[in-house]
User: Fold this.
Amino acid sequence: MSQPSASTSAAADIASRLRADVVQLPMLPSVLLRLATLAPDQPSYFDDVRSLVHADPGMAVKLLRVANSAGGGAMNTTPSVDMALIRIGARSAVELMLADQALQMFPAREQWQRDLWGHSVLVAHYMRRMAPMVIDARIDAEQAYLAGLLHDVGRFLMFELLPEVFALTEDGAADASQGLLDAELHACGCTHTQLAYLALTRWGLPEALAVAARDHHRDEPGRQDCPSDEQAGSLVTLLRDVDWLAWRVARNGAGWLEQSPEAFEAQAEHNMRSRYRGDAAHRLQRLRSATLEAEALLRAIGIDAPPWAADASAGSATGRAEPA
Assistant:
């Protein structure tokens, strides 16, 4: 029997260390788990969110910053946390708190971490905006947001141990998912999607979120992989489409969303095969709004706006060009 090559042995060793890192991950903060289970259709939703904000002085400050930024000027500033919560809405406050809690798990110290958080937050906002538009599926918008926010936790783990992999796997990531996974397998002996599945499962998050993280680079994800949730396949497909869109924006800037609906449809046809309600103009408008929201949230959690956001801020001072 032939001996494995040195590179194969090294990759296997890295894979073993990465899986050990997953096992040693701290459990999710209790507040993040509680946020993930809040139901917007419950009468107590606003009061529940208000209680969580008031219990965290640091979050109250971030909430005020976002609300006053959305107010449109010094004359409209508010010193009240409750008024800030009313101004931006309970759902937006939950999104801010989820991102802030997740950031504490994987701090953005290096540029690659800031870039990766920029991508994750953008995907999360695209997921929430596009979830209600999926045809023949009822995808919970809050679950979709969390799936987008956490879908790349495997990359944080991978690049923490081997940061040079980030540069190796970024080229072509937007258009060649299998090439990305192959590069990771060669360098690390496993993929970021496999690590994400292990991490989300360890944290006890819904199975559909773990499956979405694992399968969002598959060409044809199947629902049979998550039998307990018949909508899991739709969530995977949505995440795959949205991830592709976010990489396009990262590569070309938010101005890419200003193209004509016809040009957008031609480029997105392979990735979004008539799976969404409305026409291309409507989808573009929702994506532009989500891009502005993502930029505002990144500023609120202390991450410099990524390059793709530079031309997004010109479209709106509030980051809310369209109602959700």
Remarks:
- Confidence is low (pLDDT under 50) at residues 1-6, 313-324.
- Residues 171 and 180 are 8 Å apart (CA to CA).
- Residues 232-252 form the longest helix (21 residues).
